[in-house]
Amino acid sequence: MHDLGRGFTVARRVRLRGRTEEVTSPRAFARGVSGVPVELRSTIDYRWLEEAAKADPMVHAYTLWNLLHYPDRIRFVSAVRGGTTVGYLLVWLGRPARPVVHWFGRLPETAALVAALPPPPFATVVPPEIEPLVTGTRGAASTHAVLTMLRDRGAVGRDPTRTVVRSLVRADRPALQAWAHRTPDPVVVEYAASDPEAEHLWAVFEGDYIVGIAGAAVRLPTIWVVAGVFVDPLARRRGVGRALMTAILGAATSAGASVGLYVREDALEARALYDGLGFRPVGRNLWLEYAGVSPPG
């Protein structure tokens, strides 16, 4: 069990299913909207999570990885009915001033979780059916669709460009910092504080300069998740992105793992790359942005 460390009491009016409900607490909301007693707990049932991850490894990959490696950066709120977890929020506090909340579960069982969303600024990643519930309580948000893509274990073709890709080591940290200094993209800026070996990063260099990078953000026995793929604008359309992905796919295949990733639905060029590498869409969520948190991809 991992304690969230604080309660969630709110007071707001929610329009749902043709009627307005007064929300004064998570428990009251659960009774009023779903008609079924649902309790919110500031914990996660780890045994339940393990079973859920066996059924759908990609959906819960980040949750398991963060529990193992970054327990001080996450908090949970679980929706529990009759002693059984029916859904949960994973609150990522990597940027404490702007948490990102991942919503797992469906309506009506998890409707009570809306009462546990933090005050702005924050972003939340939700199933499409949850969007009206969130915007009904928190107002309009900047919204982007995010696809979940998965590539099953299997052979990886050779990179036709033969671009040299290598794993980064701690001695490469100055190169990462220099790249972040000259490339003020939010994805690149995040790399400035990275530990290259601990985070398993791959990069393409031109001379002493990084021109492309990608990381295996999650490395579980059966599933890896790729994140932070970025190619310098001046190096695009030269096969750098494909070379990076091919290197990571090769490493994951050697480890016996499938590979997943998240990409914005409107990022057509990136999606074409992933399609060509054998990824297929397996899910679609919405990123609801409140006050300036950038979406993935």
Question: What does this protein structure show overall?
Answer:
With 297 residues, the protein is of the alpha+beta class. It has two domains: 12-140, 3-Layer(aba) Sandwich (Aminopeptidase); 150-284, Aminopeptidase (3-Layer(aba) Sandwich). 26% of the residues lie in helices and 32% in strands. The chain has eight helices and 14 strands. It has helices at 26-34, 46-55, 61-69, 131-138, 173-182, 186-191, 240-254, 268-276; strands spanning 12-16, 19-23, 39-41, 74-81, 84-92, 100-104, 122-126, 142-151, 166-167, 201-206, 209-219, 223-231, 258-264, 280-290. It has a twelve-stranded mixed sheet with strand order 3-4-5-6-7-14-8-13-12-11-10-9, sandwiched between helices. It is globular and about 60 Å long. The two termini are 32 Å apart. Residues 1-34 have low confidence and may be disordered.
N- to C-terminal distance: 32 Å
Which word captures the global form?
globular
Number of helices: 8
Computed over alpha carbons, the radius of gyration is 20 Å
Structural class assignment: alpha+beta
Spatial strand sequence of the major β-sheet: 3-4-5-6-7-14-8-13-12-11-10-9
Estimated helix fraction: 25-40%
Biggest sheet: strands, sense, closure? 12 strands, mixed
What is the H-and-E element order?
A: EEHEHHEEEEHEEHHEEEHEHE
Low-confidence stretches: 1-34
- Tell me the CATH architecture of the largest domain: 3-Layer(aba) Sandwich
What is the mean pLDDT?
Answer: 86
**Number of separate structural domains:** 2
- Mind telling me the CATH superfamily name of the largest domain? Gcn5-related N-acetyltransferase (GNAT)
Instruction: State the CATH class of the largest domain.
Output: Alpha Beta
How many DSSP E strands?
14
Fill in the CATH topology of the largest domain: Aminopeptidase
Fraction in beta strands: 25-35%
